[in-house]
Amino acid sequence: MFKLSKFGEKFSQESGIVSLMEDLGTALNENPDLIFMGGGNPARIPEIEDYFHQRLKHITESNDDRFNLLSVYQSPQGELQLRKEMASYLSRRFQWEITEKNITFANGSQSAFFTIYNLLAGEMPNGEKKKIHFPLAPEYVGYANAGLSDLFFSSTKPDIELIGDDMFKYHVNFEQLKVNDNIAALSVSRPTNPTGNVLTDEEINQLDALAKQHNIPLIIDGAYGLPFPNITFVEVKPHWNDNTILVLSLSKLGLPAVRTGIVIANEEFIEQFTRVNTICNLATSSTGPTLISGIFNNDEITTLTQTVRHYYQTKVEFVTQAFKKALTGIPYRIHVPEGAIFIWLWLQDLPITSNELYQKLKSKGVLVIPGEEFFIGLDEWQHKKECIRISYAQSPEKITAGINIIQQELKALYQVE
Ligand code: PLP
Predict the structure, then answer these.
(1) What is the band of 14 on the pLDDT scale with cuts at 50, 70, 90?
(2) At 129, phi and psi to the nearest 5?
(3) Is there a contact between 146 and 126 (Cβ–Cβ < 8 Å)?
(4) Which residues pair with 370 in a beta bridge?
(5) Could you read off the pLDDT of 235-244 as tens digits, one per residue?
(6) Is 341 within 8 Å of 393 (Cβ atoms)?
(7) How far apart are CA 112 and CA 289, in angstroms?
(8) What CA–CA distance (Å, rounded) separates 306 from 243?
(9) Model pTM?
(10) Measured between alpha carbons, how far is 400 from 392 in angstroms, rounded to an integer?
């Protein structure tokens, strides 16, 4: 009805992240019979739920806290005391040279990425066009439509290491990774959504050196990772220095509904980010920051992350074994699940595309995510159409039911008895 601007057309069209969240909404809020193994909603972990419910109760019983929770606009950079606590924790634990001036809050890390990417890339003041580059695709589908201009992202095709008969792992292909003047920043998620890959310390150090050499930032998305919520099953070090933009989130700690993202970067970038965030959001929500205030003072954060990590680690072992059993006879490989909350399944020589497989599974009542859209900015490659992402955040009963449906569908497709 209304004529849309270029922005309007670009941002209101169908996209991977929009249909992913529509599926999520249908499955989790409207049609609970669907087996939801799609979007990244975190699991219900009883200890974590109890912990935040107790805190909420405590907050609502105190007049001052209750008032702060609901009735004041927070200062643009976010609550000062919490930023101080967090900075002191990070410098104590990891010897990062960081103060409250290096930290700012956002309404979810999704919105933080929109701001960060468009601050750095797109049309430059001199008319040049710059891109955000993913050193390793597949990467998080939620980035794919976040650029204000077209052709906003590029990626490097990964190296694939085949492990045993049925596993594999992506590595950054540093020989292919060429940083030129068109690249505004390097960006990685660690652990990676969708694959559960965790870039090694060596890979991160090399990316850090490359970014510094070209005078561009290295953006690290720690939504699942380090230092918190730390859903990692391999030992790696958190990384930050003043050339890094580290983006964290409270969502996978169990608080996706409070919409709290955290950006840690050099002071100048934090100021720039905060100004944009003020124009777009005025202020960030107080709910997440109020719920976590104090947890960095007594290292309570460590207990929480250990609980979260233990929960997913136990589950991933069960799910991996269940898939291995169910998929016998099918030419599959699973990406080594080193972190996050997903299984990334590579179905070699899949007779249909992963998008078509997704549709088939959806019609049978199980939601997964097709792999194509995660290969952002990458040319044609058969592998793109052979992967699906499966979340294991649901209950073991639902997961088992979902795996059974996936097994039946794949056996029929591959004509395996
Ligand atoms: N980054 C990654 C890798 C994600 O998987 C998600 C959400 O699932 C986000 C960022 C955005 O999370 P939020 O906006 O809830 O902080």
Answers:
(1) confident
(2) -115, 130
(3) no
(4) 388
(5) 999 999 999 9
(6) yes
(7) 16
(8) 29
(9) 0.96
(10) 10
